[in-house]
Amino acid sequence: MPVASLRKMKRKPSSSGGLFPSSPSPALATFGTGEVAEILGIPIWRLQKFLDSPQYQLSAEGKLGQGLGSRRVFKTEGIYRIAIAKHLVQDGFAAKFVGALLQQIEDDDFYESHDPDGREVPPPGWLGLIRGKSRPLMKLFYSERPPKLGEKDSPYYVLNLDEIKREVDKRIARLKK
Q1: Which of 28, 74, 106, 118 is the most buried (most CB within 10 A)?
Q2: Is 26-176 in CATH node 1.10.8.420?
Q3: Order of strands across the sheet with 124-131?
Q4: CA separation, residue 57 to residues 4, 11, 25, 54 (Å)
Q5: Cβ atoms 138, 101 nearer than 8 A
Q6: pTM as predicted
């Protein structure tokens, strides 16, 4: 079932286009598959299922080496996406639906930004699903204005993105000790 969005832009796979397009930027923190599985509290086979299933549309940000023995590497935003997928699957959503939702979340949605007047805008803290005419619509809500269930045009499902990010960040910090 496709998902319509209240947002106009969809996430596109990133490509650095530089000399090493499959390698992550060395300035960015990256994590291997085992570390990501530990951060998310899932077995490696489950993480690989998320990555290898084309329905989820998830992938590592890069690869170190080629062929057997190459290593997938992930940025924090990729770990957030996999954590969101994990929660959506646990809540009963199908892989194809989860993949369609994840494609609508931009990397920038995980961080503060600035409006045209230069004021700080916090990242969305909630993901909500709203009934559309022909399919569900995804809407991101800010933490200071969380969605209210049961009101007209309110979401029938919400996921607390702030909580997911906080847990991932806490586990990353623990891993780095």
Answers
A1: 74
A2: no
A3: 4-5, 136-142, 124-131, 157-160
A4: 17, 11, 22, 5
A5: yes
A6: 0.79
